[in-house]
Every structure is written in structure tokens, then in C-alpha cells.
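FIELD: query
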Amino acid sequence: MAPPLIHLKALRLRIGATQLFEDAELAVAPGDRIGLVGLNGSGKSTLLKIAAGEVEPDAGERFLQPGVTLRYLPQEPDLSGFATTLAYAEAGLGPEDDPHRARALLKALGLGGGEDPASLSGGEARRAALARTLAPAPDILLLDEPTNHLDLPAIEWLETELKGLRSALVLVSHDRRFLETLTRATVWLDRGACRRMERGFADFEAWRDEILEREEAERHKRDRKIVREEHWLRYGVTARRKRNVRRLAELQALKQARREAKPAAGKVKLAAARAETSSRLVFEAEDLAKAYGGRPIVADFSLKVTRGDRIALVGPNGAGKTTLVKLLLGDLAPDAGTVKRGASLEVVFLDQKREALDEAATLAEVLTEGRGDTVFVGGRPRHVVSYMKDFLFLPDQARQPVARLSGGERGRLLLARALARPSNVLVLDEPTNDLDLETLDLLQELLADYPGTLLLVSHDRDFIDRVATSVVMAEGEGRWTEYAGGYGDMLAQRGAGVTARDRDPTEKPKRRARAAGPAAAPPRKRRLSPREQHALKTLPAEIEALSAEVARLEAALADPSVYETDREAVERTARALDGAQAKLQAAEDEWLRLELLKDELA
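FIELD: result
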């Protein structure tokens, strides 16, 4: 096995009252593709900063092989002090690097190089930072939330670019599909320590749940033993006569282990405050049109939204997703067409822009809007500290300023503020930015149970697939098309994904004129891929085998005698049955999807 290019060992770091790392370790070898995962506030970004040499731990070692080059992409890149984006990107090059690569990467990312960094949007600043980080083709890449503020064309371009690099990669991201595509190992930062799995992110959640279940079983076993030993101490004859010193010492050691054991992190408790039920019809748009500077944003668009719909708006940056939302909500007047809105609409808009938070305000002031210690959740009063705990904030954070929060904690705070307000229409603009994967899971569950209507603007393909019932896609020239299902269903129906909006990268940002280009080539007819064809042939046999396995396990659990002889065997069989049923359901769903797709393509 090759020696690591960089090795962080026995790291300890305390920030304020929080012991962030106790014995954290991270080793990156040549060719590694590591996904670094963990709850918001667990220290993922800080660990990357230590690896990049930007933060010094309280204790521990950082060893970087001599001659190894390392580049780090922070969550919030600082472009101040540079006249142009090209100057910023070229500043990351070393003397041996190709001087033309920075310009080529900027062009591939939709920038010309002459842009003023002070006038860039969040997405454009992220593109410039990616060009600076990738241009040297370093030995090690440390990327902290690289897909934040990027649109789908840029995300898919970045996936392809990273796949082709020889650099070792350590990646922090909330984007499941991005992690699944790029990682071959996973490091879980959990309660101050790092646990490593030599498999990609696709296997992470099952592995994590197995660890937590094993910890819970061990805790239960230890607690039972403590109870037995304390009973012996009080009533045992030997204990009364000569006080067995060794046994007493073992009992004390068990109690000490229980005191020192760190419980698994809690889960966010998400619940949206509900308003009165809206009318059946929520929005009905007919022949909408809107243009800016002669460029059509929305042209001849009609859409009917009924109560309970979950609609995702998808397209490249600049396509007009936010404009379309504002037209539907009535915040913007159309140039032509009409929008009919239902009765009793209570709209809550989740703005993920960090500028929406006052840096000097405390968490309590943000949630209560400056009204003491009470937050009204759906019209009912709750103490602000109690409500904060639902979102995994500690009581002493109530009086801390927003400026001290991490990006993920700010996302949770915005979520807490939005969900406290009564609503029957939720508008979520990039809700997944900076949220940890556990919070995303719970947000998806909340949206599944939410009785109102959802308008979602997102570039997270996995999140759209899990949440949306239909996708409204920007086709260009102001045309929008609605597709049933999630992002994957849209791809199957459309035969292509999101493509970048045409633009001239030599023009300054915010003043780009849309140039007329040649007509796009018609998309090739969609066909089943070799993988899909193989799956369609093999899934029936797999479903039959899984059905037999489920029947066998159910029969085993139906035998009353097994419960009297081996309880552990019963638990193992029950877990195996749950796993087999889940695999059977997934196989049946996949076979049905492929059959429908085959019929549609035929």
C-alpha cells in the first residue's frame, strides 16, 4: 500500500466550549477519492482547513509528503484584491503549471476572465474559485461544498472533470448523487473522531446505521450488567462479608464507561406550521409572457397547480426560474397572459441567501423577531430554546450572534424560521445548500407529509427525484415544459439533461446580450443503455430469488419455538427479513421503471 500523501493524526481541537476533535485522523493516499461526511457543526470544514494548513489544531500531527502539491476550495472563496477573474485564477498556478489552463477552465465554466470579482454572483465566484483550484492539477484536492451555487450544467461538467483528474480527492458535499459518482471511500466525522469505510458514499448510510445499532446494543448490554452488579453489591453474601475488590473495580469501570460514552447525535425534528387548507386550485397560468431587454424569459407558458402538487423548477442559471416563481406568486406582473390564484393562500418563502440573516443578531432574535424568548410556531407559543433544540442547537447558542454559525447551521436557522410560520404553500429556493445529509432526509420526510403545495427551485438531482411530483424544465427561448415525475423521469422523457444557457463569455457580467446562434441539433433518440438492457433481463430472476428468501425468513419467524430458544437468532432473522424486503421492493420498482421506459421508447 502506498504511503499517504498527507496524514493528519491524533488531532485535538476545542473551539469555545465545544471539543470539536478528540482523536481525529485522516490519511490520503495517491488515487484516493474520499467523501468526508458528518452532521453540520461536526467539524468537516475545519478538518479540511487543518489539512490545507490554514488552521492549527491544539494537538496532533500534520504530515505532508515533500514535493506534494495541495489545493483547497473553501466554502466561501475570497476574490478581494484581484482585478479580474483571470488574475485570481492564475494566482493559483505554480511555476511548473500550464499558464493557459486557468483561462481554459474559466471558459469551460462560462467566464471570460475579464470579469470584476466585486460584481460576481455567488455562482460566478464559485466558478472562478474552481478554476483557480483545478488549474494546477495538484496531487491533492480538498473541496468544501464545490456544488453550492452551481447550476446543473456546471455540476455535471465538474463531475466529468474530476473523474478525469489523477489528483487524490477529499470531498465535502450535501449532494448525494455527486458523492455517489465520485467517491471510493467514506470518512465519517462522528463525535470528534473519524471512522473510515473503504467503499463509496452509496454504501455509507447502511454502514452508519449498522454502527449505531451495534453501539445501542452494547450500551444496553452494559447497562444490564451494571444493574446485575449493583444488585450483587447490595444483596450478595460475598459482597457483605469481604467486599470483592476486583468485582467492585469492574463495576466502577463500567459506570465510568457509561459516563464517558458519547451518545449519538440527535436528530432534527422538522414540522411545518400549517395554515388553513387552501382551495383546490392553487395557481392557473395561461399564456404567460415576460421578457427583459428583448430576451424572452417566459413565453406562452400555461400551467395548472392544484393543492398537494410538488413542482420542481429546473434549468441553468439565468434561465428565469425565480422570475417564473414570482409571476406565479403575483410578486411580478407579466407582459402578457394571466395568473389565477386560489383562495386562502398562505405562502412561506425559504430564502437560502445568507444575506437574509443579520450577522449581529442572536439566534433567539432571529427566531423570535426580537420579541423576547417566545417563538410562535403555527400561532402557538414555544420557548425559543425548546424550539432551537428541535434543530440541534444548544441552549447556550441562543445568545450567540449569527456570525459565529457555520454554513450548515445558518441553513438550519433559516429553515427553523421559515417552518415556524403558518403556510399552505411552501416556496423553497435551493433548500439543500449547506444542510447535512441527515437534515435533508428529515426535510424530505416533512415534505412528503406536508398537506400543502410545494414550489421547489433546486439543482440537487437526488432531492428533486425524492420530492417532486413533476418538473418544469427551461427549454430555452422562454419556453418551459412540464414533465411528470422527478429529475430522472424528466431525463427519460426528454432524452437529455439541462444544458447551459448560451452566452458570450467576453462580455461583462450582468450586461451579457443573448447572441443568436445556430439552431441546436435535434437530440438523439433515447435508447436503453447496455446496463438498463442487462438489468431488464436479470431482474426477473433476482426478484424471484428475493421473493423466495422473504418467504423463507417469514416462515422462520412464524415458528413459535424459535422465540423460546434463541432471541438473538430472532433479531438476526428479523433484520435479514427487513433487508430482503427492501431489496425486493427496490428490484420490483426498478423493473417496473425499465418496462415503462422500454414501452415509451418503443
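FIELD: remark
The radius of gyration is 27 Å.
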